Amino acid sequence: MILLHIDSSADTADDSVSRRLTDLFATTWRARDGSAEHRHRDLCADPVPVLTPAYTALGRRVEREGFVPPAKVPALIENAAEEREWDLTLPLITELLAADTVLLGVPMYNFAVPAALKAWIDRVTFPGAYTDADTGENLLRDTRVVVLMARGGGYGPGTPRESFDFQTPYLTAYFGDLGVAPENLHLVATELTLAGLLPHLAGHEDLAADSFAQACAAVTALAAT
Fold it and tell me: Mean pLDDT in the chain?
């Protein structure tokens, strides 16, 4: 079993709530099976380069060919810039396809996901990469994806800023469209993480602690199964 653990917070491990949650999951998951493989990718320490025109040119050429599998993409590369883009992209695709469980730590930045994570998403979403060339079946249908979200304020159901949550609908739509089965996609959020810092959130510390405790319980249960 392989766990692909991806952190996208710009904060250090000491300050990042999302990193604390992913560490809890990974620690619990490794304790369950000591022989399992844990691969960690820190998108802040090792950023994924944003796309260039060469990436999109190669992607459109692949689409015109009918979504060829990754093994056949090199035959369609026309120049050094496209080769560089593919060299940056293929290892990430291979890493994602190899994972049995994908663990994502996702803080809320300006109501959505961090740019570091969006760069990874844009690059791994290469045409045809997740479709079996022989059967047409999606290669991620059995992949388990666990998304652990941290939010400085309150955006849960019934809160005044519920409609400001662009994390949950975006990640749900993205992984669903990528081919992850609904029953294999798990999203856990902890809220009010800045209650002890921001004056306008003063008085919500107990709610923040309760939200974090519930998230930890959900994370532990997911990691243990």
Answer: 93
pLDDT tens-digit series, residues 189-216: 999 887 877 667 777 777 888 999 999 9
Asked whether the beta carbons of 144 and 101 are under 8 A apart, the reply is yes
Quote the CA–CA distance of 42 and 49 in Å, as a whole number: 13
- Amino acid 119 reads A
Q: Are 3 and 29 in contact (CB under 8 A)?
A: yes
Residues 223, 212, 21, 186, CA torsion sign: positive
pTM of the model as a whole: 0.93
If one counts the domains in the chain, the total is 1
Give just the sign of the alpha carbon dihedral 12, 18, 24, 25: negative
The whole domain housing 176 covers: 2-223
Kindly report the length of the chain.
Answer: 225
